[in-house]
Amino acid sequence: MRNIVREFGGRRVVDNVSLKVMPGQVTCLLGPSGCGKSTTLRIIAGVDMQDSGEIYVDNKLVCDTVYRVPPERRSIGLMFQDFALFPHLTVGQNVAFGLDGPKDETRARVEELLGRVGLLHFIDSHPHELSGGEQQRVALARALAPRPSIMLMDEPFSGLDNRLRDDIRDETLAVLKEEGAAVLLVTHEPDEAMRMADQIALMRNGEIVQLGAPYNIYNRPVDLEAARFFSDINVIRGKVKGALCETPFGQFLAPGKPDDTMLDIAIRPQHLRIDFDRGGKGPNPTSIDGTPARGVVTRARFMGRESIVEFQMDYDGSTLRATVPSVFLPRVGTALWLMIRRDRCFVFNAE
């Protein structure tokens, strides 16, 4: 995609989006509802048309504002959240729906795909006889049957039970990798994108604000909003003086920032350390953990694999949240000292 723009009522829903997806690669368009993800997918599929920009497949022009290959000739597979199976057709007939050619070849392809998703024994059943997860796998097989070079998936797992979803995602990913199609998956769930993607395109207000591998997107967010999208974030504000940002947790390096610039120091709850051993005296302020700051427990709850503890901080009354492995439930009103890992912090200009 090159410089795709789409407007509705004078508002840019897709704003100058460029993106390349390679064969065998899964790219997730990730972002909140209304950011332009599904519109982008519809433009690629050919069911909507951009106002400007071009789309190429295998270096051949598929669509600009004048020339347009019809959707059925774009070698694109589509999967949606409602699966859209034909209720009056059997599972086998659903998978075979988009196939042309001799009956024996069609039957062989249908059996191959249903076997790959573990549903060959349902070939003569109807969709209503299958569970939601099984219907999702039939929809995947149907989309892959014509061997599309591109696979577009719009929130395909959102209707599944949480306990089933991870298994279905993993099975789907394995089949997609075997087929070797270029996959573009739309989702608003960061966990899903992290689990499935080779690269993530983070969208906001119609634009791709950050593009990269999941590890890089998570550990090097482009701004505070990007960091917040992936997880809870604690924010500590400080002022720059002499290329150092002064905070209640000590000084942070701020090279190139003018004096009096306000910065937001962001840290995830799992990297906020509770000082159990030092009784509040704290380590040397120049260490990786900086200077300890005192807070009072306002809430603690056990979440299964970890505990979440909230503190009201003495320095300004703000709330910080820490996660602790296993069970840790201090009483409300308990005073504890907190430290932050400097190497786990993100520093941004203050919002």
TrEMBL record:
Every ABC transporter domain range: 1-230
Key word ATP-binding present: yes
Signal peptide: none
Keywords: ATP-binding, Cell membrane, Ion transport, Iron, Iron transport, Membrane, Nucleotide-binding, Transport
InterPro entries per record: AAA+_ATPase (IPR003593), ABC_SmlMolc_Importer (IPR050093), ABC_transporter-like_ATP-bd (IPR003439), ABC_transporter-like_CS (IPR017871), ABC_transpr_FbpC (IPR015853), Mo/tungstate-bd_C_term_dom (IPR008995), P-loop_NTPase (IPR027417), Transp-assoc_OB_typ2 (IPR013611)
Any GO MF annotation of the entry: ABC-type ferric iron transporter activity
UniProt record, GO biological process: quaternary ammonium group transport
PROSITE patterns reported in the protein's UniProt record: ABC_TRANSPORTER_1, ABC_TRANSPORTER_2
Pfam families (UniProt xref): ABC_tran, TOBE_2
Cellular component per GO, a single term: ATP-binding cassette (ABC) transporter complex
Protein name per UniProt: ABC transporter ATP-binding protein
Organism encoding this protein: Halocynthiibacter halioticoli
